[in-house]
Amino acid sequence: MVGTLILETSRLRLVMWDASDAGLVLALHSTIGTTRYMSGGAPWGIDKCEERLASWFKENAQDGTTKYKLLSRDDGRFVGRAGISMHDRDENEFELGYALREEEWGKGYATEVASALAMWFFEKGFATRFIAFTHPENFASQHVLKKIGMRPVAPRLIDGFVAPTFELGATDI
């Protein structure tokens, strides 16, 4: 499964991680810019990166989907990570998530990959809906979610803050 192509867009390629990719995850999440709106709000160390990488392998094996490595189609450079993974197993609730390297911001990649992931998720029949939530101040991400057709639903308490929460159903596309 390592390196397996999950899906492609006009500019991006989502592939399964390699066990040696903790350094890429560290490059992505070692800055306050890329972590300020995430759980903990602080840059990740290599131990956390290795832990998350292991969790993505486990999620993919268990659920058939996770957060994947995001690469540029034109030159193969590492752009970030994106995917839809299980959020609440008891409710069979999946969650869209993505993070891009700072130098890749403002290029429309988040919208491109989120939209493609939504189509892929429903075509594969994982569930009939998924959610996404953001930090209350992450207006750029909220804009992306609305742009792909997600609608606001009741906010959720996540990591001590009230997170704007969005939903997309298979019939919404």
From TrEMBL:
Q: Does the UniProt entry include the keyword Transferase?
A: yes
Q: Which Gene3D superfamilies match?
A: 3.40.630.30
- Which residue range or ranges hold the N-acetyltransferase domain? 12-173
Q: Which InterPro entries match?
A: Acyl_CoA_acyltransferase, GNAT_dom, N-acetyltransferase
Does the record bear Signal in its keywords? no
Q: Which UniProt keywords apply?
A: Transferase
Annotated GO MF terms: acyltransferase activity, transferring groups other than amino-acyl groups
**Protein name listed in UniProt:** RimJ/RimL family protein N-acetyltransferase
Species this protein is from: Rhizobium mongolense USDA 1844
